[in-house]
Amino acid sequence: MTSAGTPTSDATPAGAPRPGGAGSLAGRTVSRVGYGSMQLARLQSDRSAAVALVRQAIDLGVDHVDTAQFYGSGFVNEVIREAIRPQDDVLIVSKLGATSDPDGPVPVRLAQRPEELRAEIEAELTTLQLEQIPVVNLRRVDGAHMGPPVPDDQVVDLDDQLAEMIALRNEGKIGAIGLSSVTLDVLRRALPAGIVCVQNPYSLASREDEDMLEFCAQEQIPWVPYFPLGGAFPGRPKVTDEPAVLAAAEKLGCSPVQIGLAWLLHHAPNVLLIPGTTNAGHLEANLAAGAVTLDKETLAELDAVPTRSPAAPQH
């Protein structure tokens, strides 16, 4: 069984209350609500605003930040490097499996081959000015939530990828290995490598991976959903459009977004959230969702929302 550690404190080392309470990740106690940095790429014309937003998140109790070298072609990691101080004791979680391609039809392309995984880590270590990335998720292309067809040269055996990830861990360049965009079969196969978290698309309105979430709970592996509110791509339902969510928001005096995030925290004890935003007010609201209490009646009404989401492209 892979243990994610035991939560021990309701406050961060800096003394801020933990949004969502205490959870665990890679043997560290963390706030259950962290911050996903992908949207910071939108602030490339206002670097100071991006840095200030990350600082605000930390001041409000965020102590784990999700990132990737290919977010904004390194810009987001530059912001994180500037914003986060050693004394903040923030756990940085990154991912491999893609790389920047600013001259391509889209600014990111797949990078699944072992040598590409290593190159991306080397670039990230340089950008973040770190000796080790504490947690690195291997973003696979197995799940039904993938986008366009995968080129033949990017169909890579799991064992080959894990061998490279383990080598990077043995060299001290990464601290722990997670998985993202995977099937339950792939997760089971990868367990001997010591998997510390799983990131898959998942929300109240998109629960195709419920069996995998339950498996992770049994194995004490944190479940970190991306697209936690759905609606990230055309045809994918939005949690905030669901009548039950709107009714719960009105009843409890909070926003539909907060209901969607609060439901995830209530749904399983191993859930950690990484909602992203570039808006300071939205950041505060996202973190405040960790304090929303759902009574049994409201929770039952939300649990009854059907899953009706089609497959969606990778984030």
Short structural description:
With 315 residues, this protein is α/β, with parallel strands linked by helices.
Detailed description of the structure:
With 315 residues, the protein is α/β, with parallel strands linked by helices. The protein has a domain of 170 residues: Alpha-Beta Barrel (TIM Barrel). The protein is built from ten helices and ten strands.
Report the structural category.
alpha/beta
> In angstroms, what separates the terminal alpha carbons?
29 Å
Q: How many strands, which pairing sense, and closed or not: the largest β-sheet?
A: 6 strands, parallel
CATH superfamily of the domain at 30-199: NADP-dependent oxidoreductase domain
**Tell me, what is the CATH class of the domain at 30-199?**
Alpha Beta
CA radius of gyration: 18 Å
- Biggest sheet strand order reads 3-4-5-8-9-10
Secondary-structure element pattern, one letter each: EEEHEHEEEHEHEHEHHHHH
